Amino acid sequence: MARRACDGWVRSLKGETLCFTGKVVVDGKWLVRSECVRRAGQRDATSKTDFSGAISLVIHGDLTGKQVSDSRRDYSDTLVGTERERASGHHVHVVDGAGFGDLIHGFPAPCLELRRPPRGSAPEVVPPQANRDVLGAPLQVRKVGRHGVRELAVDLSSLDEATAAHERTVGALIEHLARLKIGVHTFARNSPKFDAGWATGKEIFVAEVKSLTGTSQDQQIRLGIGQVLDYAHQLRSTLSGRSIQPVLVLEKKPADNRWGSLAKAVGIKLIWAPEFRGI
User: Fold this and answer.
1) How many helices (H) and strands (E) does the chain have?
2) Alpha-helical regions (H) of the chain
3) Can you tell which superkingdom this protein's organism belongs to (predicted)?
4) Residue 274, preceding bond cis, omega within 30 degrees?
5) Which residue has the higher pLDDT, 137 or 161?
6) How far apart are CA 92 and CA 79, in angstroms?
7) What domains are defined for the chain?
8) Whole-prediction pTM value?
9) What is the Cα–Cα distance from 8 to 163, expressed in whole angstroms?
10) What angle do CA 68, 72, 75 make, to 5 degrees?
């Protein structure tokens, strides 16, 4: 069996061979096995009823309410097999019901680790990452193309430059936070579509990134303020008791100093490349 690496995330269901254990609950709704198989098939995955070396992804469901003896044995056997395959160099992904929900909707899902409990022989699934209801997969800088001069009647060079400046700022932010041992993520499936998100302790930061190249600085900053306040409001409305900090990230220091006092007045952390002071 060919070896494959895992960076901690299952990017899609395409080409995966699935095995299900327990009751799969997605967004609070139990999906019967045939529906799970159908949904997975729509994303170009295949499914098998029993675990074997052909399995590449285990959907770890809930066994609550099932007959304890048989379901526990079947469940343990699946995880034992998964652990064995991983040890042999064939990495088998494991996701829970929430992760399966992400995958069938086209979003990446965290691949869960296995551990051996202090007492007992069967491996257990390590609980998934914190804040997964807000933060999705690790954020990556997108490749920026260039429009040809004859591609369209309008001049798109300024748009290309602004997009490139946006991605440079994203990349610089990722590198800066990496030096602080902080991972930067994209948005989760049910979160607003912020540009970047990260967490330190119990505080979650959601950011909008704005380039200031080839456009009105005031217009860009006003737009960014409105967007990031909207993101924070949506999250606070659905995640009561969670600390959400909106952040506006700029390509460079704005020409007008008034934006700093305005951002502070409305509870936004305003930072800019390359120093990103204030994080």
Assistant:
1) 6, 16
2) 33-42, 68-87, 97-104, 157-179, 217-238, 258-265
3) Bacteria
4) yes
5) 137
6) 10
7) 9-125 (3.40.50.10190), 135-272 (3.40.1350.10)
8) 0.86
9) 29
10) 145
